[in-house]
Structures are given as structure tokens and as C-alpha cells.
Amino acid sequence: MRWEPQRSEELRKSVRELVNEDPFRCYQCGKCTAGCPMASEMEHPPHKIMRLLQLGDLSGAVESAWVCVSCETCTARCPQGIDVARVMDGVRQLGLSRGVFPREGAAVFARVFLDQVKNYGRLWEPLLGAKYNLRTLNPFKDAGLALKLLQKGRISFSPDRIEGKGELEKIFAVLGQKRGEG
User: How much is the pTM?
Assistant: First the structure.
């Protein structure tokens, strides 16, 4: 991509107005990416998304931003104090408002993943796969694999519960307030 200063500055201003964070403060140390549990699933991990924003490339950043599950590990690790997770939220919002959409499955996966963590405190892969496949209108996609895993005792019939469910609910309440959802 060729850098266009005017487009770059316009995108910087849009992100700052939307989420009160400046992606230009990122100096590409990569600590956000090193801690990101979803980086391996992203075409562009967090530090590269910040770089794409610096270059004015919203469309390049949108797809990977939808894979972000807002765990805020990136934010906690950033030596510049950038709320990277909030920037990811802003990228998603800007993309939607400008008609730059992710592939169909990315947004669905992000929502199903977060719902699982919120409800159970951890992932329960059978339900994650089933809900994702239902919401993407492909309900039998992994049925054969699920049956094989079940026969071998590799998946359970119910999710394990975590201790401290109340604390988890408080965390999600605070995150919802930070993002204007509650």
C-alpha cells in the first residue's frame, strides 16, 4: 500500500474522535501481538493493524479487527498506554459506518466466542462450533468430526464451570460500561 498523508491523517482523526485513542502513538514494539490469544487467527495482528491505521488503510485493518475478542491483553501490555482493544472496537465501528465489512464469519465468531466466555468463563468447543455453524447457516459442517471426537472421549457433553462467576460478571459489566453498552 502506498502511504497517502491526507488519508492517513483523516483516519487518525476519525479513530481519535470515536474512541479517544491515537494509533499514531504506537511505535510497533509488538507487545500487543505477543500477548494476543487471537493473533494467530488474524491476517494482521494488533501491531500491524495499528500500522495499517497509521498508513490510512482502514479496509486492511477491518477483517482482523473482527477477530479480536476484546480480552484487553494488548491494552495491558502496551508501553505507550494505548487502549488497543478500544482501537479495535473503533476500527469495527468505522468499518461498518463506511461500508467496509469483514467476511461473514469473522464478526459471528467474535460474538459467539465472547458469549461463551461471558456465560461459562471459558470456551466449550462443541458449543462454540455448533453456534458458529448455525449462525453462518452451515449447521452440519462439523457433524462428522464432532461424532468422531465424542466417540473417542475428546469432547464432553457439558461445559466445565469456573469458580468466581460473580467476578467474571463484574468484569463484563465494567467492559460494557467502558464501551457504552450498559
Answer: 0.64
